[in-house]
Amino acid sequence: MGGYLIYFLIIMIVPIWAQFKVKNTYNKYAKVATAEGMPGAEVARRILDANGLYNVQVKETPGVLSDHYNPMTKTVNLSSENFHQPSVAGAAVAAHEVGHAIQDQQGYAALRFRHALVPVANISSNVAWIFIIIGLISSAMSNMLLIGIILMAAGVLFQVVTLPVEFNASSRAMDQMVSLGLIDNREERDARKVLNAAAMTYVAAAAVAVLELLRLILIFVNRDE
């Protein structure tokens, strides 16, 4: 019983800690202006143009930390604060999203694989727990639990594949900002802190998903023994 309590505390606390870390780091460096004084929108545009991505638009999107790259519309969407404010955090986030645009342009394999998994992951995440709950309630319906585990595995695979995509986008972001002179040496260190904190949310989500999948697999295996 104690082991289960510790397990559930871990899977609850780790994501909360990761979210706290990224918000705290972002809020800190959102108040630190870059020496170049360029808002996120201009940082994104500079990097896009330097890589020949003139067809990719930079747009403002509502929300906080709602920044994302849309491969369907070929748009880098930046939250209002990052779009307008010349901060280290804004520059880092904008460059990161452009990193995804560069991945898309170059046909980065992990990104293409993640895109292919999207419809499967969306469906599996919505229905997996229906089968899992039925399978857990009734020991006579182990096959339902197995189906749920298989569906859940598709969602876990999506989260695991997301890790190299996000880390690679951050690496590209740092390379671009430094090579184009968009940040100085001090800002490079601070921008990396923002990107590393953001990456931890993906690591935490993937770790929790893998642990939960393994727990369910052990339940299924032990039930059939």
UniProtKB/TrEMBL annotation:
Domain of life: Bacteria
Keyword Oxidoreductase: no
Name under which the protein is recorded: Zinc metallopeptidase
Taxon lineage: Bacteria, Bacillati, Bacillota, Bacilli, Bacillales
Organism this protein belongs to: Siminovitchia fordii
UniProt KW keywords: Membrane, Transmembrane, Transmembrane helix
TM region(s), chain numbering: 6-22, 116-138, 144-167, 194-221
Pfam families referenced in this protein's UniProt entry, alphabetically: Zn_peptidase_2 (PF04298)
